[in-house]
Amino acid sequence: MKKALIAVILASSGLSFAHAVESTATWKATAKKDSTSALEVTALDSLAFQYSDGSKAFNTVNGLFDVSIKGDASATDFTLKAKKLSGTLNHLSGGSTVDVGVMWQGVPVSTSAYTTLIDTAAGTTGGSLAPLAAGFKDDTQSTTAQGAFSFNIEKATVNGADAEFNTLPDGLWSGEVNVEFVASWA
After folding, report:
1. For 95, how many CA atoms within 13 A lie in the half-sphere containing its CB?
2. What pLDDT band is residue 13 in, cutting at 50, 70 and 90?
3. What CATH number should be reported for the domain whose range is 36-185?
4. How confident is the model over 66-114, as pLDDT tens digits?
5. Which neighbouring-strand residues pair with 38?
6. Phi and psi of 121, rounded to 5°?
7. Mean pLDDT across 22-33
8. Helix %, strand %, coil % of the chain (to 5)
9. What is the pLDDT of residues 101-158, one digit of tens each?
C-alpha cells in the first residue's frame, strides 16, 4: 500500500510541473529618416513602467533621445527648450488613467512652460547635449548629441477621481508621451 501511495504522490507532483504560462511583449515600432531639417529629435527607446507593491509606486524610467541640428554660421547664441504636450496613459479596460511626468536634470518639464535644456548666452550647455551648444554655428554638417529624460508615473485616476497607486486595477495602461522641442539661433 505504501508503494502505491508513493507512486500516486510522485505522479501528481509531476503533473504540477507541466503547467505552462505565456506572456507576450509588444513594442511600438516606426522607422524615419530626416536629414534635411534644422532640428530633428528621435526617441530612442520605449517606456515601460512596473508597479512595486513594496513601495506602492511605479519605477522611474530613463528615456534616451537623439538630437541633430544644422548650424547657422551667423548665429551668436543658441537655445534648445522642451515642453511636455501630453502624457496620459489609459487602462485597456477603461475607467483608469495614469499621468507620466517628465524631468530634465531634476527639473520638471511641464505642459505650461518651456524648460531650457541649452542656452549658450546664459552658459547652460545641456549636460550630455553639450556637443550641440559647441556646434550650433557649424553649417557644414549636422551636430548630434544624445540626452535622456527621467519619466515617472506622477498621478492616477479611477473613474475620473484622483486615486492612490495601490487602488488602481491590475492591468495595462497604454498611450503616448509627447515632448515638443524648440531650437532657436540668434
Report:
1. 6
2. very low
3. 2.60.40.3290
4. 999 999 999 999 999 999 999 999 999 999 999 999 999 999 999 999 9
5. none
6. -65, -35
7. 51
8. 15, 45, 40
9. 999 999 999 999 999 999 999 999 999 999 999 999 999 999 999 999 999 999 999 9
The number of beta carbons lying within 10 Å of the beta carbon of residue 10 is 10
Which three-class secondary structure string do you get for the chain?
A: CHHHHHHHHHHHHHHHCCCCCCCCCCCCCCCCCCCCCCEEEEECCCCCCCEECCCCEECCEEEEEEEEEECCCCCCCEEEEEEEEECEEEECCCCEEEEEEEEECCEECCCCCCEEEEEHHHCECCHHHHHHHHHCCCCCCEEEEEEEEEEEEEEEEECCEEECHHHCCCCCEEECCEEEEEEEEC
> CA 177 to CA 100: how far, in whole Å?
7
Question: Domain spans of the chain?
Answer: 36-185
- Residue holding cell 510522485? 10
184 in Cβ contact with 132 (< 8 Å): no
